[in-house]
Amino acid sequence: STAVGNLVCCPPVDFSLARPLLGILICFSAYLWTGGWHVFWVGVEVSIHLSALTRMVPPWPHVAHKAPAFHFNSLANYLVQSSELADDYVEGLPAIVEAKGGIIDVMAEVANLTASILLKSVFSYNNKDVEDWGAKFIRAAQGADDTLANRLDNPGQLLAPNWIYKHMEGGKRYYEHKAILDNLCMAMITERRAIVEKEGPSYFTDKAARGETLDFLDIVLSSTNLDGTPASDDLICGQCITFIAAGFGTTTTALGYTLYCLALHKDHQEKCHEEAKQVLAEGQPDLAALKKLKHVSMCFKEATRLYPPIPAIARDLTEDTEINGVMVDAGTTIIVTIYGCHHNPAVWKDPEAFKPERFDTEAPGYVMDPFAWILYSAGPRNCVGQKYADMQSRLLLAKLLNTFEFSVVEGVTNVRPVPKIVLQSEDGVKLRVTHRKIT
Q1: What is the 3-state secondary structure (H, E, C) of the chain?
Q2: Whole-number Å distance between alpha carbons of 365 and 358
Q3: Is the pLDDT of residue 246 over 80?
Q4: Res 331 pLDDT > 90
Q5: Nearest CA-CA partner of 258 in 306, 290, 294, 293
Q6: What is the reported pLDDT for 439?
């Protein structure tokens, strides 16, 4: 393995007995990037989680693009549904805050909202039991992630092949959580397939002709593998789980840490509040109105620079590639620590400070390398749902900041990030929430 600049290159070999070495390589790379031991250990934990994930998730064959589910017209329809759900949530939040003595874990609370929005707007899942569906999914997804984390802390489990791990206590729990996720998503797929079969082959075109949105599930159900064969329900189920888990997990983390940063920096929170109040005073926002939330967007980007929801990503080279003067063979796995890049003093001046003005594109002399802030990765393998995620983040922040003030809890001035597959917080993100007086 070779450290090349901001990357670690892992040769195309079987790592089934060498996962800990992968973690050591990543953490050393993170240390080289940042010159700081904090990011060094973040690199250790993130890289091992990535390697564990690659052992547990089967490969997905090439299928037709899912991006149409996130095109402009679809986003506009999703926005209407999301606004309605956000309003319901904002209306009910004061009662939750009061019941908890004015202090809530914003990460936990926002998770329920983002899950409900994702299920309804992307999958058109309108079952009356949708809230319970979302709660079950969240519990199962978090349980699966926790059991993976426990596996990483246990060398015996970590090095065990999956066929042995599944019979261990931790493995049994993991596969129980996985079965719940599979059953929930398969029920959604079965329900939609029944509708498609009832209405016939013209279901998708008829739905579009009626002006209804072809959601993500419609897209994957109508797609085929590159060889023309239909995608199996098992593979579609895997994609559904990936999109739901990634959608609510990453958005939840991004919103939670953004609210935390704004609680620490009240001057920026007030600017966001005034901006949100002005935009929302015009009525339910459309996509054009959301673009007016410039300071909200700057604060969101700076918060996710400090606390990127996905701390690291991996890519396989499809051809021999020269990187910083070093020739790297095809088949090599390249692992990029986003957390390290976002905290790199060679890229960011005063990288540990919260400075939203870094993202002010209208500032004189504004220049930013396109690969400096990589919340959604970059290149042809970037996040297919980034426009959807950006829309949801602006909308939900505007709704929350327009109605509530967020403050740090007395005696608690910082949180401790926990780098799992999705960045979490050791004790949640507990903030004092105050209902603003409507003026």
Answers
A1: CEEECCEEEECCCCCCCCHHHHHHHHHHHHHHHHCCHHHHHHHHHHHHHHHHHHHHCCCCCCECCCHHHHCHHHHHHHHHHHHHHHHHHHHHHHHHHHHCCCEEEHHHHHHHHHHHHHHHHHHCCCCCCHHHHHHHHHHHHHHHHHHHHHHHCCHHHHHCCHHHHCCCHHHHHHHHHHHHHHHHHHHHHHHHHHHHHHHCCCHHHHHHHCCCCCCHHHHHHHCEECCCCECCHHHHHHHHHHHHHHHHHHHHHHHHHHHHHHHHCHHHHHHHHHHHHHHHCCCCCCHHHHCCCHHHHHHHHHHHHHCCCCCEEEEECCCCEEECCEEECCCCEEEEEHHHHHCCCCCCCCCCCCCHHHHCCCCCCCCCCCCCCCCCCCHHHCCCCHHHHHHHHHHHHHHHHHHEEEEECCCCCCCCEEECCCEEEECECEEEEEECCCC
A2: 11
A3: no
A4: no
A5: 306
A6: 58
Q: What is this structure's pTM?
A: 0.80
Residue from 135, 152, 145 nearest 173 by CA: 145
Mean pLDDT in residue range 297-302: 98
d(CA 237, CA 223): 14
Residues 6+ apart with CB under 8 A from 341: 6, 33, 347, 371, 372, 374
In the chain, the amino acid numbered 425 is S
Q: Among the ranges 78-92, 157-171, 290-304, 313-327, which has the highest mean pLDDT value?
A: 290-304
Contact between 320 and 274 (Cβ < 8 Å): no
**Residue % of the chain over a pLDDT of 70:** 80
**Per-residue confidence (pLDDT) for residue 71, from 0 to 100:** 61
- Alpha carbon distance 27, 124 (integer Å): 41
Task: Please choose, from the candidates 258, 300, 304, 257, the residue with its C-alpha nearest in 3D space to the C-alpha of residue 425.
Answer: 257
List all residues 6 or more positions away from 417 whose beta carbon is below 8 Å from its beta carbon: 42, 307, 423, 424, 425, 426
Longest dimension (CA), the chain: 64
**53-71 pLDDT per residue, tens:** 443 444 444 444 455 556 6
Q: How many percent of the chain have pLDDT more than 90?
A: 35
At 269-285, the pLDDT tens digits run 999 999 999 999 989 99
The two structure tokens encoding residue 361: 């594109």
Q: Is the pLDDT of residue 170 over 80?
A: yes
